[in-house]
Hints:
The structure is a homodimer of 316-residue chains.
Chain A: E1 12-14, E2 19-21, H1 23-40, E3 49-54, H2 58-69, E4 73-80, H3 89-104, E5 108-112, H4 113-117, H5 121-127, H6 132-150, E6 155-157, H7 162-174, H8 178-181, E7 187-188, E8 196-198, H9 206-216, H10 232-246, H11 250-261, H12 263-273, E9 278-279, E10 286-287, H13 293-302, E11 314-315
Amino acid sequence: MRCRRCRQPAVLEVRRHNAAFCPDCFVHHCREQVGRAIHDFDMMSPGERVLVAVSGGKDSLGLWDLLLDLGYQADGLYLGLGIGEPGGYSDQSASYTRAFADHRGATLITVDLPTDYGFDIPDGSAAAKRVPCSACGLSKRHLFNRAALDGAYDVVVTGHNLDDEAAVLLGNVLRWHTEYLGRQLPLLPAADGFVRKAKPLVRLGEREMAAYCVIRGIDYIVEECPMAAGNRHLGYKEALNDIEEQSPGSKQAFYFGFLDRAVAHFRPEAVEDQAGLRPCPTCGSPTTSETCAFCSLVRRATSEPVAVGAPRRRRR
Amino acid sequence: MRCRRCRQPAVLEVRRHNAAFCPDCFVHHCREQVGRAIHDFDMMSPGERVLVAVSGGKDSLGLWDLLLDLGYQADGLYLGLGIGEPGGYSDQSASYTRAFADHRGATLITVDLPTDYGFDIPDGSAAAKRVPCSACGLSKRHLFNRAALDGAYDVVVTGHNLDDEAAVLLGNVLRWHTEYLGRQLPLLPAADGFVRKAKPLVRLGEREMAAYCVIRGIDYIVEECPMAAGNRHLGYKEALNDIEEQSPGSKQAFYFGFLDRAVAHFRPEAVEDQAGLRPCPTCGSPTTSETCAFCSLVRRATSEPVAVGAPRRRRR
């Protein structure tokens, strides 16, 4: 196998593109794909302030690295979830993130759920009677948005890759959650109370991101979150992997075909679902309920009223 | 485990309904599900003439049996595809079908591709450079429709079960074939040149149909069609089986959720795709092309012009 770009011996094959690359050209390929996603979906412009939601995993650290190399002014935001014993999952994730930021001389903002909000995901989700992935997801969405507004960032970017988006899409399609389908977009423009959100890795798969990090010498937490074991999302990924194995390119055709030919059909449901947004009386975030989901979670997780005002935040 | 209906010991579990049945009540359950599909989608009325497309497999023979027991005036149509050696797949399928018709004293119409049209699926698909499943599918659709019109039947019914429909839906969704999505319905009303088509087994799964035939003593061809090995459809079934195993009810939620909340969005594409239908100059069937797909296949498979007029047909 020869590299598609330089014809040197290739070390990496990307079957859905029917292409192979040497290490250097693979890094070029990843930058190109991210650049193309940013351009095609008009995600951000040079000079804008970008906040990267980083978890310490291959996708978010790889994304941060790619954006810095593409010349974007990208700071990181790490959210401490309090998962695992001291020295366990969350602590390790934080260490990988901090090491990357130090190495690149990049700015890292940290929000720590236990310190700043008085609960961690395992206890909080149990107290609020929510599955951990649900409590975690809503906390992340809320706190990333909050931090971006507070820090006057133009856009929050997350490390969702093609495998993630295809699996979420499969889950939404299997249940025909039409309101979620209508907003499953790689770019959500800013709206009242919501900062712009973008997913610049939608053109890159999970394996490509792992390979990118290895080539670039980025250490990341390899372990999956211990609380995610057995969740449906992982089952959808496996199902799609089997289909991709049979027919390379299936995931990309599924996700991009959806964007090209289907998502517009579900926009009305998504818009209707978000009608009647109003500020949460506790934190001011837009919500369709009495209190926003995050403040409800905090209240139930801590069994005491939520203090109004911005949480304490630590800068590197 | 006790039977949901009569509380006798159950022999069969239907996990997606969280129910178990004794043999008699299971047969009752199957009739009820078929009756409900017929009613909910207004598929046919008592007294109408029904043509059942039978292959000799569990689904079509089970369906024919169910419709006869529900009091419908249901004749069978068997299409000889010429697959396998003499005494092989097609011949065995024909024997099972004939045995069933004899046993029930039902009317069976037979159309034989090699005898009546001068080609079989293996040679014909090769000559026409089509995958066998494609050549077979289009031949079936054409000839079932033709026979129903010629015999003045009110409706053609096929044995597509929930697993089939969910797998087809997954395939259509993975590629976002929006024009196919818009017409993936359990009932297609009659239109100019097209007889009404219905799928009364959409509420029953593959395993249920196999169990139904075993309980009812219906012998059927167990072997899968040898030409279908490795086709995508089977991969989609496996993927859905894995998801169903994790979360029983997924297939039903996927298919019926589609009918409830999504198919209407894709109707315009389906209608547009069928715009400009006109009679095939050779056989008169509606087509959007110069010649209909079946006549093109016949022409290429036999390398000679197709004779106009109804094919020879044999009645039991």
